[in-house]
Amino acid sequence: MKNWLETVEPLVYESRIKVPYTWSVGEVGSRFLIELRDHKKIYGTRCPRCDRVYLPPKKPAVNVS
Ligand SMILES: [Zn+2]
User: Fold this and answer.
1) Residue 42 C-alpha to ligand 1 middle, in angstroms?
2) CA of 54 relative to ligand 1 center, distance in Å
3) Read out DSSP for 4-64?
4) Distance from residue 7's CA to the centre of ligand 1 (Å)
5) Taking 80 as the threshold, does the pLDDT of residue 63 lie above it?
6) Rounded to whole angstroms, how far apart are CA atoms 30 and 40?
7) Range of the domain at 53
8) Does residue 16 lie in a domain region?
9) Is position 3 within any domain?
10) How many folded domains does the chain comprise?
11) How far apart are alpha carbons 58 and 50 in whole angstroms?
12) How far, in Å, from the CA of 60 to the mean position of ligand 1?
């Protein structure tokens, strides 16, 4: 017996779903947001290897030489 679904055009229902979520911004992200909120300062991080400043800040990479 043939699968009945193979004999018809599948129906597609288009919609949107709401998926509330929260996540931790981590140590560096928290510092950035707290400095901004409490002191109106924009906090970045400077890479000790290439001297670039990252904004938004990111945690310095572990030494891989
Ligand atoms: Zn770097």
Assistant:
1) 19
2) 9
3) GGGGSPPP--------------HHHHHHHHHHHHHH-----EE-TTT--EESS--PPPPP-
4) 58
5) no
6) 14
7) 25-65
8) no
9) no
10) 1
11) 14
12) 8
Q: Token digits for 43?
A: 């906090």
If one counts every other C-beta atom within 10 angstroms of the C-beta of residue 32, the result is 21
- Decide if 18 is inside a domain: no
Distance 25 CA to ligand 1 centre (A): 21
pTM above 0.85, yes or no: no
Q: Tokens at residue 32, please?
A: 């950035």
As residues whose CB is below 5 A from the ion ligand 1, the structure lists 47, 49-50
Q: Is residue 7 part of a domain?
A: no
Tally of residues, the chain: 65
pLDDT digits (tens, 9 = 90+) for 2-53: 788 889 998 999 999 999 999 999 999 999 999 999 999 999 999 999 999 9
What distance in Å separates the CA atoms of residue 8 and residue 30, rounded to the nearest whole number? 53
